């Protein structure tokens, strides 16, 4: 059996960290089994779905490196859903109901008042043809419910282990609305059968759909038609609370464009949160796949700390080669060469910071000079060798200065750094000095903005 999984976003918005985690788990599961990863666009809701969002989702996944082997749109498959609908009706498993929202509400209230669970009473099953004709004559349109078996549905969940749902404790789910539009439940099953999906990996919020979907799989495809199911615990905030609106809406687009977080920092965090592995950065998606095992997933919610993303992002940048970033640096106006890149990268948290460090080299820098250091710095300017400076220049120069002025340690080095960069911390001065160059350095040492 070739493993085949799908990630099935609705193009009603851009994807956020929660979606990406589900996509990533599917991707890693597929790749770790030599299988295939399908991108299904769940756009049956024609009003809320847009091509722009679909395009955006594809862009985001591509940028992340989660490349799909196959993609299709549900909106192209209505004919298949109609066929499935007809089959279920013919088999007596899909029945029309005419209750309005208000009427259903009233029923639930009465049930609650009687201490009963608010499960749909199946009144529509006893409607005669004449009753239905009367409703239709009133202008009512039916919605359609799937008739659950009333039995116990069991499955061995890939994440949660032995699982079951008593179908007599849940309402027959509505599959088709009054206006004829499909809820996600039926199209998803039809597609999973037709695409040959072998495993469904999705969030725990879908567990309750599983009973109906397993029965629909059986109704449409026979007793072996249901794929294996895995429901992963959802992401929560670092404090264990439900993912706050701010965190929950952390979109890939925002992380990329506003926060300048690298794809592998996002993927590494999302692959590791809620597992028994430490949250550490991996250099490639393949490395994440190698580490991946569904059995490492904890059964408790996965805590997402956005600080982890910045921490892992910094790690990634510190090892990043110049040719991997040179285009982006140029695009942001940070004219750094390979040497300068190596000098500044240990100081970066995100690539955006490169701009600030670039200024240290090219200027303008406003030197920070304390009065008591002014004379020392003038001596330093005089002792500074001429261009070209090299990797040795800093130590030769500061040794000479030490000898001449008697200063050492912090009182020797800090005034130099502050004059040359305007700051008290930053990249290694030995690397920075040749990049700043003797001319600019001399001017900064004597208090010029340069
Ligand atoms: N479009 C559904 C969702 O995003 C897919 C759920 C599933 O994976 O079955 O919730």
TrEMBL record:
Where's the Aminoacyl-tRNA synthetase class I anticodon-binding domain? 341-445
What processes does the entry annotate via GO biological process terms?
glutamyl-tRNA aminoacylation
Xref: InterPro entries: aa-tRNA-synth_I_cd-bd (IPR045462), aa-tRNA-synth_I_codon-bd_sub2 (IPR020751), aa-tRNA-synth_I_CS (IPR001412), aa_tRNA-synth_I_cd-bd_sf (IPR008925), Glu-tRNA-ligase_bac/mito (IPR004527), Glu/Gln-tRNA-synth (IPR000924), Glu/Gln-tRNA-synth_Ib_cat-dom (IPR020058), GluQ/Sye (IPR049940)
Query: Motif 'HIGH' region residues?
Result: 9-19
Question: Which superkingdom is the protein from?
Answer: Bacteria
What catalytic activity is recorded?
tRNA(Glu) + L-glutamate + ATP = L-glutamyl-tRNA(Glu) + AMP + diphosphate
Q: Where does this protein hold ATP?
A: 245
Per the annotation, the residue ranges of the short sequence motif 'KMSKS' region are 242-246
Q: Where in the cell is it found?
A: Cytoplasm
Task: Specify the Glutamyl/glutaminyl-tRNA synthetase class Ib catalytic domain's residue ranges.
Answer: 3-277
List keywords of the entry alphabetically. Aminoacyl-tRNA synthetase, ATP-binding, Cytoplasm, Ligase, Nucleotide-binding, Protein biosynthesis
**EC number of this enzyme:** 6.1.1.17
One example of the protein's molecular function in GO is: tRNA binding
A GO cellular-component term linked to this record: cytoplasm
- Keyword Protein biosynthesis on this protein? yes
Provide the top EC class. Answer: ligase
Name where it mostly resides: cytoplasm
Q: Which PANTHER family match?
A: GLUTAMATE--TRNA LIGASE, GLUTAMATE--TRNA LIGASE, MITOCHONDRIAL-RELATED
HAMAP family given in the database record? Glu_tRNA_synth_type1
Q: Which family does it belong to?
A: Belongs to the class-I aminoacyl-tRNA synthetase family. Glutamate--tRNA ligase type 1 subfamily.
Assembly and interaction partners: Monomer.
What's the stated role of this polypeptide?
A: Catalyzes the attachment of glutamate to tRNA(Glu) in a two-step reaction: glutamate is first activated by ATP to form Glu-AMP and then transferred to the acceptor end of tRNA(Glu).
Protein name from the UniProt record? Glutamate--tRNA ligase
Record organism: Marinicauda pacifica
Q: What is the lineage of its organism?
A: Bacteria, Pseudomonadati, Pseudomonadota, Alphaproteobacteria, Maricaulales
Gene this chain is encoded by = gltX
